[in-house]
From TrEMBL:
It comes from the Bacteria. PANTHER family: TRANSPOSASE INSH FOR INSERTION SEQUENCE ELEMENT IS5A-RELATED. Residues 37-113 form the Transposase InsH N-terminal domain. It comes from Streptomyces avermitilis. Residues 365-400 are annotated as: Disordered. Residues 378-400 have a biased composition (Low complexity). This is Transposase InsH N-terminal domain-containing protein. InterPro entries: Transposase_InsH_N. Pfam families: DUF772.
Amino acid sequence: MSLRPRSGEQVPFLTVQIARASNPGGTTAMWVRDRLDGLWCDEDFADWYPRDGRPGLSPAQLATVCVLHFLLGLSDRQAAEAVRCRIDFKYAMALELDDPGFHHSVLADFRDRLAEGDRADRLLDLALARLKEAGLVRERTTQRTESTHVLAAVRDLTRLELVTEAVRAVLEEVARTASHLLDGLVDEDWRRRYGRPVRLGKNPTRPKTRIFAGGDDACRLLERLLHQHGPGYRPGPQAEALRQIMVQNYYRGAAGRLRRRTADDGGLPPSSSTVVSPYDTTARYVRHGHIISWKGFAAHVTETCASDSVNVITDVATTSAATNNGQALPGIHTRLARRGLLPAEHLVDGGYTSLVHLERAEREHQITVSGPLPATPPASTARTRASTGTTSTSTSTAGR
């Protein structure tokens, strides 16, 4: 599939006429076309597609549909139906009234392309540049950053299920790429234990027996793959995930016997480095207080919040769930500086208010970062709060 740019196309006359007659006040989709002439053009996507092949759909149009279908809370099927049936969608995409649109699966394929490398960030940069040209966002106003949790697309697993599922994942990986390595290793017992996804629950029968049986199986499998494989074979990502999971759950005792790690026996790794799924080794478990806990990542969303303009998202960053919010602040300011959208005042919650980062924001970018102090501040910070008589802090407060 290749790209044949169609930028500069005007909205067909009949589409304009009917859209204006049926929506005299306009809609969000029409506003995007009228005020911004679209957020992107096809040339922005030139390096996403090969030069040869049959022409594909307009990527600028698909990106616009993705924005609208997220904004309106539509599913992929509903968004594709809107392109076929809604006059304002046809107006936004400069389509003829009888244009049949596309199959809904095209949107998933497009998002797969979008997820590669830094493409999403580049599209955000382009969209913000056009919003800036339109006067909808500007530098040195007030912005705010909030963090939220992002759930990893993985099951919640007990430690026993984690080891067992990791062994099963490696067996499937090797069966696809080098099945001869499993000869003489996989017997009927292994087929029974690892033949299907593991669901043991929190109270399985014979847990200790299962724990050590799974550990022994994992050791035998890794020994076969890492030390006895033939020439030209390289263990895949599932084998590396199993190796990490074994290190964090087992160790060899003085007699060389396999032992299960506990807090008092061998020690457990911190949650910031603990693998929680063999299928996503970057996801982490984190708990906030006594109520909120999840396995996955953290998202930091920054938006303008001036009272005299619309709110516009200016930065989105995804970090490990175990990363302290304050550590994300320098990167946010660096990206905003690159986009020419640094705020004068940056509002944040207590997770971001580290005095080190607040001072750095003031020194490097002349930004006043304001937000509540942590619940248990250091003694020096507590004295600062007492002397100023405030319940929030900023870089100017920290400097006094």
